[in-house]
Amino acid sequence: MNMKNQKISIIGCGNLGRSITKGLLNNDNFNSSNVTATRRKIDLIADLAKDGATITSDNCEAVRNSNIILVAVKPYNVGKIIAEIKGELIEGQHVLVSLATGLTTEEISEMLDHKIPVFRAMPNIAANISESITCICGKNASKEETQNVKMIFDCVGESLIINEELMEAATILGACGIAFVFRFIRAMIQGGIQIGFDANTAKQIVSQTVKGAAEMLQVNNDHPESEIDKVTTPKGCTIVGLNEMEHQGFSSALIKGIVTSFEKIEK
Fold first, then answer.
1. Is 14 annotated as a binding residue?
2. For residue 259, what are the domain limits?
3. The model's pTM
């Protein structure tokens, strides 16, 4: 299916919904006039209209003007939104994608009066610069419908189809994970300031270093330890820094943080 023919509504444009909307609007393979964004306080998304989107506070109107609906509200509001729009959903015409944490496709399907395809998708806020990683699972969906949804999230980064039982883990590693990376970057910048750089210069050096490291892993398809070995010389400054970080619990603290977040979402 041609991406320019996809008509998408993003219901509830808070931080995540806005990020996805801006990512779609900035993608040359997508027709911005086919994007509808909703928010109760419409003035908060007025800038999206300047980029070509249709904005409205009427969720039902958004559904009528689209074939794929992204519900980007908090989990406790999903039921309310579906109750509001389900009368507009038509089998064979609409696909519903929930971005809510913790709600299964089965639970979402039970809120509907009919069996339209239902997906869960977990992007992160890097969608607004088209660098998200989005994990997707679906129910009652054909291969074509699954591919169409995947293509949407490919517009805002990379996406992959996973088993639904891994969606909570995907939320932690991909969505929460970006905050963990930001905290790591902030700590590196603070270290850079302590050894002599001003904050802006430290940020420039650190952000490009992190970007380069991530690109190397993707391009070389190598293990991080193999890349570390290339820059650790005997009795060198890199290995003593790495060893001190490990003595202070760097890796174990990060792993424990990930597992703790996962245990929280599982509850």
1. yes
2. 171-266
3. 0.88
